[in-house]
UniProtKB/TrEMBL annotation:
Location(s) in or outside the cell: Plastid
Pfam families: PAP_fibrillin
Assigned GO CC terms: plastid
Domain Plastid lipid-associated protein/fibrillin conserved: 64-239
This protein's name: Plastid lipid-associated protein/fibrillin conserved domain-containing protein
Domain of life: Eukaryota
Alphabetical UniProt keywords: Plastid, Transit peptide
Species of the source: Escallonia herrerae
Length: 400
């Protein structure tokens, strides 16, 4: 039953995907198109041995708004705040009434491999869905192949390149222009350390209607890179064929694998795209990764910004804020002054433990030069004291 409900995610790996060529080389360019404030346009140049091709990949302003809303949400929706869910829902509604591909199940753009980026989590979610789909360390994919002699829609949870994956497959058919009917018929683990597949013990033939379901595609982008689908259990899914650079970076951070390399690659791409001067943008920023591990001293970690939030004010004030327990917070105030291109002199000299209007001062003074390596309205990468920090903006303005 668990495998059946996992398959109800509408995710698939039934047909063999195009082979990955390790000799292929790709470069990504990330820039803002002149046609819209939030539009994302990337130029991808790929060379495979002696072959060369260029593909223009773009997201419309409406699609970009959804991607912006998804940035920073952990567990593909499991840990989303009410505000984040509201932003996502608003973006979904705009797209679902916009000019997507008509009759998506008849379009070749729906065919292929998709990555699950976000899903709502109704109470009907199965234990296996809660276990695998909500864990950032695992990657969840979908492949849809309807225009073949063996049409299929299947789910796959990839544990890692070293361990392997779980695949649940279903026979599929298009009912109309939006709905796909499917019935699950097999599931298996593929472990890298075993030369054979390990069947997942689910008697699909005995489950009857429990092994059946449907999936509606409510939006398919004109480029075939973004899709919104709704399952028969009321779950909404956001899937992408190609992720934009910030999503790729945040995925590496969530998995905790090759983060430094991902940051270096991202910054290199932004630099090559002739990015302008980076500034400290006002707002509340959550620290999601740093290149330095926390020390044994809790107060030292908090004072050095290795945990909690940074709140940037337009008047040159900076605050470190860490929620401890039961309304008790550690707060450290300071100032920043621009001292060069992408550089700021920071002085943090007002620290205290606070509980409501009361506070206990702590004598800590910290001075450093902060370098902004990259920033936009949602993501910021900085460096100070030889430590690299990645922050996600969680609030548009200071409210503390």
């Amino acid at each position: 039953m668990a495998a059946v409900e996992l398959a109800n995610l509408g995710l698939r790996f039934g047909r063999q995907a195009p082979a990955f060529n390790p000799r292929a080389r790709c470069q990504f360019r990330f820039q803002r198109p002149s046609g819209g404030k939030h539009g994302i346009c990337r130029r991808i140049s790929c060379s495979v041995v002696d072959q060369q091709q260029e593909v223009q990949v773009s997201f419309t302003p409406e699609e970009s708004s959804l991607i912006e809303a998804l940035l920073g949400i952990q567990g593909r929706g499991r840990s989303a705040s009410p505000q984040q869910l509201q932003d996502v829902e608003r973006a979904l509604q705009v797209l679902e009434v916009s000019n997507g591909v008509p009759d998506p199940t008849s379009s070749s753009l729906i065919e292929g491999r998709w990555q699950l980026m976000f899903t709502t989590r109704p109470g009907t979610a199965s234990p296996i869905q809660r276990t695998f789909v909500g864990v950032d360390f695992f990657s969840v994919f979908q492949e849809v192949y309807l225009q073949t002699n063996d049409p299929r829609v299947s789910n796959i949870v990839k544990f890692s390149d070293v361990i392997g994956e779980l695949k649940v497959e279903a026979v599929a058919s298009a009912k109309d222009g939006k709905r796909i009917l499917f019935q699950f018929d097999r599931a298996a683990f593929s472990f890298k350390f075993l030369p054979f597949k390990v069947p997942y013990p689910v008697p699909f033939r005995l489950l009857g209607d429990e092994a059946k379901g449907w999936l509606d595609t409510t939006y398919l982008s004109q480029t075939g890179n973004l899709r919104i689908s709704k399952g028969n259990k009321g779950t909404t899914f956001v899937l992408q064929k190609i992720t934009e650079p910030r999503q790729k970076l945040l995925s590496a951070i969530s998995k905790g694998t090759k983060v430094r390399e991902a940051i270096e690659e991202f910054i290199s791409l932004e630099t090559s795209a002739a990015r302008g001067e980076s500034k400290l943008i006002e707002g509340e920023w959550d620290m999601i990764w740093s290149s330095q591990t926390e020390t044994d001293s809790w107060i030292e970690n908090a004072a050095n910004g290795l945990m909690g939030k940074q709140i940037v004010k337009a008047n040159g004030e900076l605050k470190f804020l860490v929620d401890i327990v039961l309304g008790i917070r550690f707060a450290m105030n300071g100032t920043f002054v621009k001292s060069g291109t992408n550089l700021y002199d920071v002085t943090m000299d007002d620290a205290a433990f606070r509980a409501g209007p009361y506070g206990i001062p702590v004598e800590i003074i910290s001075k450093f030069i902060l370098e902004v390596l990259y920033t936009d309205e949602k993501l910021r990468i900085t460096k100070y004291n030889k430590v690299i920090f990645v922050h996600i903006r969680v609030d548009g303005s200071e409210k503390k």
